Amino acid sequence: MNRHAATALMLAACSLSASADQPQKQTPDQRPNIVVIVTDDHSYQTLGTCEKDSPMPYPNFRKLADEGMVFDRSYCANSLCGPSRACIYTGRHSHMNGYLFNEHAAPFDGSQPTFPKMLQKAGYQTAIVGKWHLEAIPPGAKGDTSKYESDPTGFDYWEIFPGQGNYFNPDFITPGKDGKRVVKTEPGYATELVTQKSLKWLDQRDKNKPFMLVVGHKAPHRCWCPSIQNLGRAKQYADAIDPPANLEDDFADRPEFLKMTEQTLLNHFNVWSDEHLIKEVVPEDIQKMLSCPESKTLHTQYDWEMPEWVRMDPQQKEAWYNYHKARTVQLVKDIKNGKIKTQRDILLRRWRHYMEDYLGTVLSVDESIGQIMDYLKQNGLDRNTLVLYCGDQGFYMGEHGLYDKRWIFEESFRMPLIMRWPGHIRPGVRSSAMVQELDYAPTFCDVAGVNTKENMNTFQGRSLTPLFKTGEHQDFKNRSLYYAFYENPGEHNAPRHDGLRTDRYTLSYIWTSDEWMLFDNQKDPAQMHNVINKPEYAETVKELKALYGKLRKDYQVPEGFPGATGKLAVKPQWDCAPSRD
C-alpha cells in the first residue's frame, strides 16, 4: 500500500470513528406540508379570483388563484357549518360520520378515523387554530355543558373558539394540564387573532417534521362584522354592483315548501343585528316600515340588539357605533326625502348594506391569506407546502331573495376551492371537474404518502391528485354527487331533503313536504323553473331517479334518511370500501 492510500484509509477510519461517537444530523422529512384554510359561509360568487367573481379587489385571493388551481364546480355534502366540517375531516357523508346538523343530540364522535389522525400517526405535526364548531351545545344551555363538547382529536396542538365564536375579543379554548378546558378571552379581531396564532405555531413547531395546519376562520359568518379598520372599505363596490336578477323571486314554479323558508332578506333579515342599523336614531314610524315582522332572530337582551356589541371594548364600540349611526341617518334621510318609498326600495338598500358588510368581512380573510403565504415564502416553505383554501359551503348573496345556505340550490351547494402546490399543481388553471369536500381527506393522505388501503377505504370521496396536471381527468367525467340536509325543525325552516348534482342536472326530493324538484342547469342556471313534471323531461326524470337510488345505495344511506320529521340517530361508520363512487 502506498503512502497516499494509507493516509486516506486512516482518515476514513478516523471519520467513521468520530461519526460513531457523535449523533448524526437528522435529515428533515421532505414530505409536503399541508395548510388548510377554512372559512365559514364564503360564497363562490365573492371568491375574488377574477373579474367574474370579484365584486371588489381581493389581491391575495387573486394571487393564490394565479399560483394555484381554482375548482369551479366544487360542492359540499351538507350545507351547514358543523356537518360540513365533519365531512371534510372524515371524508364521509353525514350519515356515515354521525354529525347530521348543528346542535346535534351528541357532539362529533372524535374516536372515528379522520385525516388529521392519519397524518399524525404517520409522523406529521398537526394543529388547528380557530373554528372547530363540532360541538352540540343547544341554545340556552346552562350549567355543565361538557356532555355537548367535542375536543379536536388527531391534533398535537389546538386552540379553538367555543361553538360559533365571536368577531370581537373572542374566547379561545385550549386543553389544560388537568385535562379540563381552559377558556381565555383574547383582545382583538377574530380573523387577525387566528392568523397570528397560526403563524406563532408555525414558528414554534418541530422544524424536522412535516406539518399539517388547519386555519379555521369565523369570517364571513353572520352577522358579517368587518374589522374596525375595514369599516366602509367595501361601500363603493357594494354601491356599484348590480343585484341578482332574481332578488325579488316569488318562488313560483317550484316546490310549495320554498315559500315557507325563513331566510329572506325582505321578511327575515334582522335590521338591527344583521343590517346593523342603530335603532335609537330611527323614528318609530320608520322602524315599523323597516321591520321584518317574520324575523325570529331578535337579540333583545343586547343593547340595540347587536350580538357582537357586548364583546367590544370602548374604542371598538365608538368606531362601530359612529360608522353605523351615519349609515342609519342616511337611510332615514332618504326615506324622508322620498328616495326610498316602496318595499322594493327597502330591499335594494338592505341588500347593499348586506353586501357592504359581507365583502368588508372577507377583506380580513384576504389579508390573512397574504400573511400566511408571505410567511411560507420567507421561511422557504412555500414550494413544498400544499395550501388548500375552501369555504364550508356556499351562501346566498341575495339570489332568490335569500341569505344563508341549507338548500340544494347552487348558491349554497357549491363552495369555493383553491389549491396551490408549486411543481405539482399546474398554476392558473380553472378546473371544471365535479369535486366534493369528501375528496379533501383522501387527497391529503395521497400526497402525504399515507394512502394505505386501510386509510383510503374509510373515505367516500376520491383523491384529487389526478386533476393536478390539467384540472381534468377521465376519472372525474360523468361524476354525480350526493347531497343531504337534515336540520328540520330548525333555524330558517329549510326542509329535510337530499338529491344529486350531475354535470347538467340538479334533482332533489323534499322529504318534509313530499315534493320533487329538477333543474336543468344548462338551460336554467338561476334554477327558476322546476321541470320535474314537464313531458319533455320524462325520460331524464326516470334516469335521474334511478341514479338517485343507486347513489343512496352506493353511499350506504339508511332507509328513510333524511326523513320527513322526528329525531334521527346514527353511529359513525367507516367501512366504505364497497361504496366508493
UniProtKB/TrEMBL annotation:
Signal: is it a keyword of this entry?
yes
Q: From which domain of life does this come? A: Bacteria
- One example GO MF annotation: hydrolase activity
**rRNA-binding keyword on record:** no
Q: Which InterPro entries match?
A: Alkaline_phosphatase_core_sf, Sulfatase_CS, Sulfatase_N
**Alphabetized UniProt keyword annotations:** Glycoprotein, Hydrolase, Signal
Where is the Sulfatase N-terminal domain positioned along the sequence? 32-450
What are the boundaries of the signal sequence? 1-20
Q: Which family does it belong to?
A: Belongs to the sulfatase family.
Against PANTHER family, the record matches this protein to: N-ACETYLGLUCOSAMINE-6-SULFATASE FAMILY MEMBER, N-SULPHOGLUCOSAMINE SULPHOHYDROLASE
What is the name listed in the Swiss-Prot or TrEMBL entry for this protein? Answer: Sulfatase
Q: Which organism is it from?
A: Akkermansia muciniphila (strain ATCC BAA-835 / DSM 22959 / JCM 33894 / BCRC 81048 / CCUG 64013 / CIP 107961 / Muc)
